[in-house]
Predict the structure.
Amino acid sequence: MKHKPKLVNIGRSTYFHHRHGVVQQKKRFRVTILYASLLLVIGGVFFTSSQFALPAIKRLAELQKQHNVGVNTSVLAEPDTKPSLEIRKENDALKELLEEKLAEFPDNRTWGIYMYDLQDSTTVNINSDKVFPAGSLYKLYLLEALESKLPFDRWQYTWTDGINVEDCVQSMLQVSDDACAEQLADYIGWGV
């Protein structure tokens, strides 16, 4: 006949009698924390290996394959299945026409043109590799900010410093009127 051990609770610890003496059983809270910590460590190892170690091992395996392909000539590389980029052909007739037009312009100016024909994929390239200063390019950004603040249909009815917004925009874009650009920027707010 088996004898069940007699349990005795003292504080948070549980003791029980055994035929070889009194043995203390650990607190259940400590055991739970121990198991939870163990599960957390195991989960962390799996997460770390799946996020960092396995991709690194795969990259090393790919590098090894590439090295083996380079060393062993009997292994054939896979064919390149990517579509090749279309070689663009220059439209010589249009380029000649544009160069004739540019010759009519003042000699103290440098022009750069790059055109791409969407129908036959031909290009025209005149000084497109030269670097040009941006100049008054900020004036184009003013238009977007102005449109956000004031709808286009109200430009002709809105005045700033004695000139309506529509006329100021026209002057700014057609003759690069810096004073109008500054007035519009003040109206919009330079921070915008």
